[in-house]
Write a structure and sequence with these properties.
Layout (H helix, E strand, L loop, with lengths): L5 H12 L4 H23 L8 E5 L5 E3 H15 L4 E6 L6 E2 L9 E9 L10 E9 L21 E7 L3 E6 L4 E7 L4 E6 L10 E3 L10 H12 L10 E2 L5 H11 L2 E4 L14 H14 L3 E3 L19 E4 L1 H12 L1
Parallel strand pairs: 3-5, 11-12, 11-13
Antiparallel strand pairs: 1-2, 3-4, 5-6, 6-7, 7-8, 8-9, 9-10, 13-15, 14-15
Bound molecules: 2,5-anhydro-1,6-di-O-phosphono-D-glucitol and manganese (II) ion (MN) (2 copies).
One manganese (II) ion binds next to strand 5.
């Protein structure tokens, strides 16, 4: 089998579709390299003294794990010097991170969830990194939080790395979704799946069912219908999976279909759901749409939402198209 590296793929994609100029290619390669470093740290576990809590809190009031902070630092450091970025923003940092003056400033803006699935770090279950790339608006000189307030439809690239039995990188630049596997001996990303497509129908759903008493009626109705199986209104049996790492749940859905839900619920009305629009929902929505699936907040297409805050939360429904359309319809009925 002829091996295609990430670099070769990016160069060929630019030649073919003109979607990956050199600066963007550098950005993606640098992010991919940072993910390699994170993967290495994750793989060491206790031997690398990276497990456990850092005993600090992030802006969302969540206790940070050592790996949350380490991954954030790895991504910042890797991306500062290249000249391709104007600023970065992260789930783990309260405000944006402009590129220091000593480096040239580029036109892209990078957002990331450095370590997704924190509750799984210490129990050796798959975790990941999610990233999103925006372009600075024309004429921007000093980047501010306001410059990041762009809808997901303006993302020029999005991807995630999943640190599981294999380390994989899933990437879109708006021309389909491709998956690369890390060759650990060679230290290189090798293209292993081209044009990933999510089946339109599914018999698998992912939701944290322990929150069911707080759900809103459309979600309760839908999950009850799925649980009713073959003899219920949906006329088929469903299987349930919940890894509690969005990357791992989305990765399964990209490979064999399914619907992923993290709805808003009645617990804290001022917090619409748990997941963050800019670091989790938008990049995953772009990937899922590029693979033929759908993503909404229950009412609107995720990628059309105009953000108002960097750390904004949003309800998430994504995956196999026909099921995402069904739960979105239930919200409207
Ligand atoms: P993070 O570790 O970046 O805070 O994200 C965790 C998210 C997501 O990955 C996952 O789907 C969800 O939280 C799990 O939430 P529950 O613990 O409520 O199941
Ligand atoms: Mn996350
Ligand atoms: Mn995180």
């Amino acid at each position: 089998m002829k091996r295609v590296s990430l670099t070769q793929h990016l160069v060929e994609e630019q030649r073919l579709n003109n979607t990956i100029p050199a600066e963007l290619r550098l950005l993606i390669e640098v992010v991919a390299r940072a993910c390699k470093t994170i993967s290495h740290a994750v793989g060491k576990g206790a031997l690398g003294e990276v497990l456990g809590s850092a005993e600090t809190e992030n802006v969302q009031g969540e206790v940070q794990k050592k790996l949350d902070i380490l991954s954030n630092e790895i991504l910042l450091e890797a991306n500062e010097w290249g000249g391709h970025l104007a600023a970065m923003a992260s789930e783990e940092m309260e405000s944006i991170h402009p590129i220091p003056n000593r480096y040239p400033m580029g036109e892209y803006m990078l957002l990331f969830d450095p370590l997704d699935g924190s509750s799984n770090i210490d129990v050796n279950v798959s975790i990941g990194t999610i990233f999103s790339v925006l372009k600075a608006r024309e004429g921007m000189t000093t980047p501010t939080e306001q410059d990041f307030m762009q809808s997901g439809s303006r993302q020029v690239a999005a991807g995630y790395a999943v640190y599981g039995p294999q380390t994989m990188l899933v990437l879109t630049t708006g021309n389909g979704v491709n998956c690369f596997t890390l060759d650990r001996e060679m230290g290189s990303w090798v293209l292993t799946q081209r044009n990933m497509m999510i089946p339109e129908d599914t018999q698998e759903f992912a939701i944290n069912h322990s929150n069911s008493r707080h759900w809103h009626p459309p979600v309760t109705r839908y999950v009850n219908e799925m649980m009713a199986g073959k003899t219920g209104v949906l006329g088929k049996d469903f299987n349930m999976r919940w890894i509690a790492s969005m990357v791992a749940d989305v990765h399964r859905i990209l490979n064999r279909g399914g619907i992923f839900m993290y709805p808003a619920d009645a617990r804290e009305p001022e917090k619409p759901g748990k997941l963050r629009l800019m670091y989790e929902a938008n990049p995953m929505a772009m990937i899922v749409e590029q693979a033929g699936g759908a993503a909404t907040d229950g009412n609107n297409r995720m990628l059309d939402i105009e953000p108002s805050k960097l750390h904004q939360r949003v309800p998430v429904f994504l995956g196999s198209k026909n099921e995402v359309e069904r739960i979105t319809r239930y919200h409207q009925e």
